[in-house]
């Protein structure tokens, strides 16, 4: 995800300038405010600066950064701009039926219908029916989320016919989609934090799909 930042605070500007002189990478901690108090959590992401405007002036110091790796802050140094962190893994689970597939049947998996047919046959040699494995199939999760989003978009079009259309690009990559949903779909901040703590895109997509279905 892209993080556009406009900074006016001199210490933060100095920190960003230091990053630009080195590896252009800094850390962003998840936080939210209720209007009176600001809560800062120990979960965040590294961000790599790829564009910036050095002229501060009244417009502030503007940078664009790309979120790279999630981390958990272990402890902060006496200097508030430095901390010891642990990079969190991004676990991509394989298809659970891959191990029982007969390679000799792969030539028949040439269309979605055939793939579904033989997927059911693969599941038949296990102790669970196919629909159990489908709940963890990343392609089905992505398709399910896009279907739910299309329902919401059609509803918005009916309400906003007079407004100019806005083109929204939804990622196809499961990992990017899971973070895109967490960033763009309205939800409680504690739910966003929960999603950031999950180490697998399948876990995040399953939670997000269930949440979207409950919002119908």
TrEMBL record:
SMART domains listed in its UniProt record: LON
InterPro entries assigned: Lon_prtase_N, Lon_prtase_N_sf, PUA-like_sf
Domain of life assignment: Eukaryota
Pfam families: LON_substr_bdg (PF02190)
Gene3D superfamilies assigned: 1.20.58.1480, LON domain-like
Signal peptide annotation: none
Lon N-terminal domain ranges (all copies): 1-216
Protein name: Lon N-terminal domain-containing protein
Species, as recorded: Cuerna arida
């Amino acid at each position: 995800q892209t993080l556009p930042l406009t900074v006016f605070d001199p210490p933060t500007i100095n920190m960003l300038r230091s990053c630009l002189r080195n590896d252009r990478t800094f850390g962003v901690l998840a936080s939210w405010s209720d209007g009176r108090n600001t809560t800062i959590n120990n979960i965040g992401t590294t961000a790599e600066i790829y564009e910036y405007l050095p002229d501060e002036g009244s417009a502030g110091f503007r940078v664009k950064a790309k979120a790279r790796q999630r981390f958990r802050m272990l402890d902060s140094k006496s200097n508030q701009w430095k901390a010891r962190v642990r990079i969190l893994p991004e676990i991509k689970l394989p298809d659970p039926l891959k191990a029982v597939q007969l390679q000799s049947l792969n030539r028949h998996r040439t269309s979605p219908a055939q793939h579904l047919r033989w997927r059911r046959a693969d599941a038949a040699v296990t102790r669970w029916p196919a629909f159990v494995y489908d709940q963890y199939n990343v392609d089905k999760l992505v398709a399910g989320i896009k279907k739910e989003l299309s329902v919401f978009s059609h509803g918005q079009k009916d309400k906003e016919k007079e407004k100019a259309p806005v083109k929204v690009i939804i990622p196809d990559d499961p990992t990017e989609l899971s973070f895109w949903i967490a960033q763009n779909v309205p939800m409680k901040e504690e739910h966003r934090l929960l999603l950031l703590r999950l180490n697998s895109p399948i876990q995040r997509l399953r939670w997000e799909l269930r949440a979207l279905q409950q919002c119908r």
